[in-house]
Structures are given as C-alpha cells and as structure tokens.
C-alpha cells in the first residue's frame, strides 16, 4: 500500500476476476463493429466503434457484472465502466481520462480478424463465459452477456460458452456458496 497507495484491496481471486473490464468492454465492441471490421482494412473500435449504442450495451453488461459482485457480497468500489468514459465524477481504476488517452493515441487502428483476435478468444470466450457462468451460479443471470456470447458464437461458428472458462468447464459449478468461499480462501487442497 505504501508503494501503490491507489491500489484497492479485494476479498479474493473471484472478486478480482469480476473487476476485469476486458469482458465488459471488448465483446460488445468487436461484435457490434463486426461489419466495419470485416469491410475496412483497419478500424478503430475504441474511437469510431465506441458510439452511443455500443456504450448502452456495455453499460448494461457492466450493470450485470456489478449485480453479480453484489450478490456474492463483494464490497465497493465496483469501478463502473461508465466512469472510464467521464471526465468528472468518480475516478475509474485506470485513472482520469484513460479513455481519451487511449483513443487519442491512435494505437487501436488495426486489422482485426473476428475469428482469431484476442477480444473474441480471450475477452469473449474466456472472460465473458466466466462472468456468465458465475452469474448463473449466483442466481444473477446475464441476459445481455448471454446474448453477446450467442452473437459471438454465431460469428465464429463455435460455441464460445462451451469453449470458455466457465465454472462448468472448471468443475466448480456444483460448489455451494460456502464451498466456493473455502476454495477461494484455502485453495484446492480444502476441497479434497
């Protein structure tokens, strides 16, 4: 804390995983920009692709993420994604004006292959699948998240949820709440 005074303590690894912004920002960006990504040689999804309709989807997806965190008893700050796009109000985890710095850099104008790009394979198949499975497990389904996964699956021709890092694929979906807490605090040895 002395070296990094802005670091926030978290309760456990799942709390940290549910703070990952990648599965909230990137799946809607890559899926809602699929047509221009396929049409243009390069397309900046963080600049041209971040339009009001995309923001509405990411904001609702983020509300699903926060609802899961709250259902699991995780405390604030939850770092709502909307703060990433604002110049005032609560400071987001990457600091003030992080989005402006990102888009002004021009670093994100790239050729994105929808079948192989990390936003589809990592943030959608792995990250969003984890969030959706934790939501199912916690009784807080993610209808927006499930829809984004379904659209990504249609685009890639693969069942991204089935391929993903879900609690089912990790063999953890049958754990009780107490069992999950034990696992998160004591590790796999506690489950033997």
UniProtKB/TrEMBL annotation:
Q: Name one GO molecular function term.
A: oxidoreductase activity
Domain (Opine dehydrogenase): residue spans on this chain: 11-156
Q: Which residues form the signal peptide?
A: none
Question: Could you tell me which InterPro entries the record lists for this protein?
Answer: 6-PGluconate_DH-like_C_sf, 6PGD_dom2, Opine/Lysopine_DH, Opine_DH
Q: Which Pfam families match?
A: Octopine_DH
Q: Which PANTHER family match?
A: BLR6086 PROTEIN, OPINE DEHYDROGENASE DOMAIN-CONTAINING PROTEIN
Q: What is this protein called?
A: Opine dehydrogenase domain-containing protein
User: What is the species of this protein?
Assistant: marine metagenome
């Amino acid at each position: 804390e002395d070296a990094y005074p802005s670091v926030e303590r978290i309760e456990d690894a799942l709390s940290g995983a549910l703070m990952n912004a990648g599965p909230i920002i990137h799946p809607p960006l890559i899926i809602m920009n699929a047509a221009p990504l396929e049409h243009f040689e390069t397309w900046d999804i963080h600049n041209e692709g971040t339009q009001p309709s995309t923001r509405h989807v990411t904001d609702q997806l983020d509300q699903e993420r926060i609802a899961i965190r709250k259902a699991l008893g995780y405390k604030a700050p939850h770092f709502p994604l909307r703060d990433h796009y604002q110049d005032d109000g609560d400071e987001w985890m990457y600091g003030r004006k992080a989005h402006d710095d990102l888009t002004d850099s021009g670093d994100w104008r790239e050729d994105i292959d929808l079948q192989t790009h990390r936003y589809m394979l990592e943030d959608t198949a792995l990250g969003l699948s984890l969030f959706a499975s934790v939501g199912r497990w916690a009784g807080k389904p993610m209808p927006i998240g499930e829809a984004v996964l379904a659209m990504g699956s249609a685009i890639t021709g693969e069942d991204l949820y089935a391929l993903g890092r879900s609690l089912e694929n990790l063999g953890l979906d049958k754990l009780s709440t107490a069992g999950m807490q034990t696992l998160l605090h004591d590790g796999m040895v506690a489950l033997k």
